[in-house]
Amino acid sequence: MIVLVGYGDDPCLEAVAHAADALGSAVLLIDQRQAGDVDLVLDVDQGSVRATVTVAGVRYRLDELAGVYARPLTPPDSADGRARERGRMLHAALVEWLDLTELPVLNRPEAMLSNASKPLQSQLIAQAGFAVPATLITNDPDAVRQFWHQHGEVIFKSTSGIRSIVRRLDADSGRRLPQVRDLPTQFQQFVDGSDIRVHVVGSQVFATEIHSEAVDYRYARADGLSADLASVELPAEVSRRCVGLATTLALPFCGIDLRRCPDGEYVCFEVNPMPGFSYYEAHTGQPISRAVCELLLGKAR
Amino acid sequence: MPSALILTDRPTDPVPWLVAAAFGRRGGTPATVLDTGAMISARWDLRVSADGRAAGGPRWSPDRLDGDPAVLWCRASVVPAGAFSDQGDRDYAAAELRALVLAWMHSLGSRVLNAIDGDGLSGPSWAVTRWLVEGARSGLPTWPVTMATSARNVPGWRGSPYDARRPVQLQPAAGTATVLVVGRRGYPMLPDPLPEQLRRGAVRLARRSGCRVLEVAFARHQDQWLMVSADPMPALRTQTHLDAVAALMAGVAAGAG
User: What pTM did the predictor assign?
Assistant: First the structure.
C-alpha cells in the first residue's frame, strides 16, 4: 500500500493514485483538507519511530506500508479554532514523520530545503557537474548596470523558493533599478536555448522539451503566448548527470529545469523538490506517475 | 589576525560580546559582533559564476568588517525584513533576505562554525524528535516524545471530553544537566552528574549534526539520565566555555578548524 500525503484534490496525488490502482496497489490518502477525519499518533522513543493513522475509522501502522508520496502543503485555513489546531498538528506530525521514517519517501521535507535559496541550490547543482547561469544578487543599481552591460541580456527573479515570474531586464524595468536598494534582487545572465524539464524518478529520466516564445513558459498564456510540450531524448551523459544531481540533493523524485543551448551544452536553472509533474505527463503521456508507484513499491526498473 | 564575525538576533544576549572579547584577548583584532538587522543595511554583492563558485557577500564599512570573515559564528534564527508597510511585502522580503544570507553562508564553507541547511542559520533546522532520534543513533538514551491529533489516542491520557479530540504533544522534561560540545570536546556542567559515556555521545551527536558548538541537555528519569534536547545556540555560562568557543573560532580562522 502506498501512502499519499497532501491535499486530496491535488492533480499529482490523483495521478499517482490512478497509477497505483492500475498496478494493483492499494492507496492510503492522508488528506490535509480532511483533518477532522484523520487521527495521527507519532511516537518517538529511543530512536524508534512509530506512527499510526486512523482514516475513515480504519487504523494503519504507517511503517508497515510500502512507501510515501508526499506533497504536504500549508494547513488549510478555517474559522473554527479547533479545526485549525488539528490541521496544524496533523501537518507538523506528518512533516516530522516524513523526515524520520525508514520507509521510502518522495521527498523528505529536509531534502526540499535547498530549494528555499536559489543561489544556494545553484552552488550544489554545479557540484553535480552542471553549468549554472552567471548570477548576481545585489541591492546596488550600479552593480546591476555593470552586470547587464557584461552579459547583454539579463533576467531577474526571486532569490527564495517563493515563486516569481521570470522577467527580462529591459528599458522599462531598467528605469526602476534604484528600487533594488530596498531589497537585494537576483539577476541572471539570459541563457539562450530550449527549455527542457527533466523529471527524475529514482534512476529513470523523463525529459520534456518546451517550445515557447515566453521568457517563463509557465506563464506563457498570461503573456498572450503559447507553450508546446514534447517528449525528448537526452544524451546519456546528461541523463546520468540528472540522476546524479537528484542523488546529491537526496531528492529521488524531482523536476530539473535545464536549457539546451545552441552549442549543445546544458545549463541547469533549478531543481524542483515537489514537481507539479501532472502537467507534463498530461501533455506528453510520459508514465511518470507509474514510475513513482514502482519506485515506492520496490519495483523500479 | 584574520577577521571573525558573530551574528546575533538577540540584542540582550551578552554571549556574543563576551566571546568576541575572549577572541580579542588571544591577540589581534577582536571579533565583530553584528545584529542580523545589519544584513538589511549592508551593500550586497553576491555572485555565482557558471561553474557554481560563489564570491562576495554583504559589505559594510572597512572599520566594521573588512571583506569576508575568516570564521563566522551565527547565533541567530531570524533575519529581519526591513521597513515595508505591507505584511505581504515584509514576508516576501524576509524570505528573500534569508535565502540570500543562507547562500552567502554556504559559500563560506567550513568557515561557518555550525553547518547550515536550507532553513537553519545556526545549525540544522531539526525538530526535537529529529534531535532525539539522532541522539539515539549517537548512543544516547533519549526521552520519549508523542505527538497526537487527538489526545484520547495517547495511552494513559486523562482529560475532559472537550479536550479528548484536541491535539497533544508530550514533550521531554526540562533538562537539568548539560554537556557543551565545542569542537571535539565535551564540557560538562559543574558539578558533573553525568556518566562519561553521555559526554562522548554528545560529542558524537554534535559531529552527526554538523555542529561544532552544541549543548545537549539531559533530565533524570527514574534511575537514568535521558537526553531531552539539543541547542546549537547555547548559553555559555562560564569563562571556560567562552574561552573554548573563542579558541575554536581562532583555530577555524587560522585554517586549522
Answer: 0.94
